[in-house]
Sequence to fold (18 residues):
Amino acid sequence: SEVSSNPVWDVGFGISTK
Fold:
């Protein structure tokens, strides 16, 4: 749920490093 160089869809907010 946070912005990173490796964006992945995160249901919590938008992009994440997961």
Q: What stands out?
A: Strands lie at 8-9, 15-16. Residues 1 and 16 are 4 Å apart (CA to CA).
